[in-house]
Amino acid sequence: MSTLLQVENLTRHFGEKVLFENISFSINQYQKVALIAGNGAGKTSLLSIINGIEPCDGGTVSLFNQASMAYLKQEPDLNENLTVFDEVYSTSNDFLKTIHDYEEALESPDKDLLSKAMERMDAINGWDYENRIKQVLSRLSLGEMHKPVSALSGGQKKRLALAKTLITEPDFLILDEPTNHLDIDMIEWLEEYLTRNQVTLLMVTHDRYFLNNVCDEILEMENGRLFRHKGNYEYFLEKSQERRGNETQETEKARNILRTEAEWMRRMPKARTTKSKARIDSFYELKEKAAGLSTERGMTLSMEGERMGHKILEVHDVSFSWGKLPILDHFGYIFKRGEKVGIIGKNGSGKSTFLDLVTSGIRPQKGRVETGATIKFGHYRQDGIVFDGQTRVIDVVKDIADVVQLSNGEKVTAAHFLNYFMFPYPMHQQYVYKLSGGEKRRLYLVTVLMQNPNFLILDEPTNDLDILTLNILENYLASFKGCVLVVTHDRFFLDKIVDHLFVFEGNTVVKDFPGNYTQFRDHADARKRQAALAKASALKEAAPSSAVIKPKKPGLSYKEKTEFEALENEIAELETEKQELEAALGSGILGQQELTGKSERFSLLIAEIDSKTERWMELSEKNVF
Known about the structure:
Blueprint lengths: L2 E12 L2 E12 L3 E6 L5 H8 L7 E6 L5 E4 L11 H5 L5 H13 L4 H14 L2 H13 L14 H14 L4 E5 L7 H13 L3 E5 L3 H7 L2 E6 L2 E6 L2 H13 L6 H4 L1 H11 L6 H17 L22 E10 L2 E10 L5 E6 L5 H8 L7 E6 L5 E4 L12 H6 L4 E3 L5 E3 H7 L16 H13 L5 E5 L7 H13 L3 E5 L3 H7 L2 E7 L2 E5 L3 H26 L15 H28 L6 H31 L3
Parallel strand pairs: 3-7, 3-8, 5-6, 6-7, 12-18, 12-19, 14-17, 17-18
Antiparallel strand pairs: 1-2, 1-4, 8-9, 10-11, 10-13, 15-16, 19-20
Helix pairs in contact: 3-4, 5-6, 9-12, 20-21
């Protein structure tokens, strides 16, 4: 494969801080590469330099073969004055401009305008492209095309920016945290989309399942240097652990990744896919190789928290709606000491609203929420970061407490607590405004945990946190003796932490599933298979069977008997074809021409089945049993 991107001796400083120095790498056509580094290490700066948005302090970036490039930023760059429709098609791409004109012509009373637009679509064969665009927009829940961009939520804007990036179908795709603000169904669709399409990819993500399933190479950036790992996240764990095993004590926290993954493996249910099975197999090989490495145990922080009484949190018969949008209807649940609950569901199904209800941020319209007298919430909100940029990092946490009480009776200083959460001592005197977005979120997390809550409410805590921080948080929660209620789209995080799930299915339906995400997905897949088998069986039983229905008396002529028996087989065959067409039409992968052809065939097929069934019934009435 030919080289598409070449980076040579690239250097970037941020003030006195060296983000990276003299790093070099190349990416070949159709490679799918992930960039991993701690918060503040310069990942976004590197992507911006590659895209020509940010200058470098030395080195070169070369893009070959006149390759087209599209870049998804962490913060969407959209025109607030446009509608969603106009923003989607606001590009110099001739295909998109033609499709934009055609879509506008569809809503115009000018038939001549539509005719000319269709001619241009035919000329560029734009029908398949239009169909692919609509599939992307549909899967990212961007149906309100005439809504102003300014009226969108932050999550909707991120999904709109992602859709714009994907539909340009570039040769080289660069994605900075693409899974943030996507629900799990969207993430799994994007996973499949990137895996299926032949595209060269460089992305930053901390979603470990997503990373493992999509990427075939990982670039690890640490202390200004770059390390290359040929393989997915499993392979990265192995090689990164081996490398750190030969380094100094400064990387002790990083070496503990393996121990955190070992805990996950102990909790891992039966593998659902061959990828999961491969992960389990590689773990045992890794365990043997790691046996000779550092045997030191990393420090484990177990907060004391407030004492919990008998009554924890009780939700009694709660109903709530946002206007005409129903969220909960007579929902009830009594929380038990120490349980850890994950909340999953589509965007807009009411997950964050539920967190506000149980913490009394909003009041239920019916029912009541009762909180035990000893319960102290620690609420980590999606939009909860409010810091004075001119405050030093150490002062932010000292405003909460100078020391923190641990569950074993020991006390640690605020500085020690910061260090545990990947804020080394030299950073403590740094001003908040100099922190990266991920570092600010990590500092916000520290401020929530330092308050010694005994009931943690976490709303999307995994967004923008690097993998090392996620492991530290997971270790912390594993030893946390209070309750945890967490909304997250991070499937890996859910598998490691939660005991059961609240599944928000929309329209007030909330189901309590007794297990983690992988177990839930296994269960859902099994139910889908059972439903498909049941439907196939019902269709087979509904179709006339020659073994059951036989003309036995001379009510039918010989010709009619022959026709009657033939109809039974023909109807059964047509029903089978109908099922196959339904599956194809619902797959979302058909091109426009194929989709049109199969749709027309489906309409004819229904008419043919109805006609033949009517004739069969007419003949059966003449037959005497």
